[in-house]
Design brief:
The protein is an all-alpha fold. Helices cover about 65% and strands about 0% of the residues. The chain is built from 11 helices and no strands. Helix 5 packs parallel to helix 7. The radius of gyration is 16 Å and the shape is globular.
C-alpha cells in the first residue's frame, strides 16, 4: 500500500468513534477498501504483530451505546461511564458495551475480560463471541484464526448483521476481496436502511464490488 493511500488515523476522533462506531469504521476503512485489497504476499514478520498500515481492527456493534456514554466528554470518560453502568446493571449488553469501548482504546486485555463477563452471564451472547474473535484478529495470524470461526458464526446466524459486518471487516484486513464483498452484500440484504447496511454499501462501492446477492 502506498503512503498516499494509507488511512489517516487522526480523522477518527476517539469520542465520535465510540459513540458512532459504525460511521467511524466507514471513515477508517473506505481508504483501505478503495486501495484494491491487493493480494501481495505479506511479510512473515507481520504474522504476529498488528499491521502498521491499517487502523486498529475493533468490534463494530449494531446498536448505539447508552446515552450516558455518548454524552461523555472524552473516550476515557466514556469508558468510566460504561464501567459504572456495567457494574450497576451487570447485564451481558452492558459488559459488551464496556468491552467494545475498551477494545477501541486498544485495551485488549480489558476487552477480553468484559466480553468473557458477558458470556458468563449468557453463554450464547453473540456480540461477545464476535468481540473475542475480533480481539484475536488484531494481528495477521489472529485474523487467519478468526476468519473461519466468523464464517461458522455467519452460517449459524444468517440474519445477523453484526456477524456479517465484522466478518467483512476481517476479510478486508486479510485482503480477501471475495469474502468481504459477500459479507457486506449480506449485510445490505438483511437491512439496507440500517446504519450497518448503509456503511456496507459505501464500503462495497468504494471497493468497486458487486453487491448483487443473487
Amino acid at each position: 500500500m502506498s503512503e498516499a493511500s494509507q488511512p489517516d488515523r487522526r480523522v477518527v476522533p476517539a469520542r465520535v468513534a465510540i459513540a458512532l462506531g459504525v460511521w467511524a469504521v466507514l471513515v477508517a476503512l473506505v481508504a483501505v477498501v478503495a486501495s484494491g485489497l491487493t493480494n501481495d504476499p505479506r511479510p512473515a514478520e507481520r504474522a504476529s504483530a498488528p499491521d502498521p498500515n491499517l487502523p486498529p481492527l475493533t468490534l463494530t456493534l449494531d446498536r448505539d451505546l447508552p446515552a450516558e456514554a455518548v454524552a461523555a466528554a472524552s473516550a476515557a470518560k466514556q469508558v468510566d461511564v460504561l464501567q459504572n453502568l456495567a457494574i450497576e446493571r451487570n447485564t451481558p449488553q452492558a459488559w459488551v458495551d464496556l468491552g467494545a469501548a475498551r477494545h477501541y482504546q486498544q485495551d485488549y486485555a480489558g476487552a477480553i475480560l468484559d466480553y468473557r463477563r458477558a458470556l458468563a452471564l449468557d453463554p450464547n451472547r453473540l456480540d461477545a463471541q464476535v468481540g473475542l474473535l475480533i480481539v484475536d484478529a488484531a494481528t495477521v495470524s489472529g485474523r487467519d484464526r478468526s476468519a473461519p470461526l466468523l464464517a461458522k458464526l455467519a452460517t449459524r446466524h444468517p440474519q445477523s448483521q453484526l456477524v456479517a459486518f465484522n466478518q467483512g471487516m476481517v476479510a478486508v484486513y486479510r485482503e480477501d476481496r471475495e469474502t468481504a464483498n459477500a459479507a457486506f452484500a449480506k449485510v445490505q440484504a438483511i437491512d439496507p436502511a440500517s446504519p450497518l447496511g448503509k456503511v456496507a454499501e459505501r464500503l462495497t462501492t468504494a471497493a468497486g464490488g458487486n453487491t448483487n446477492t443473487k
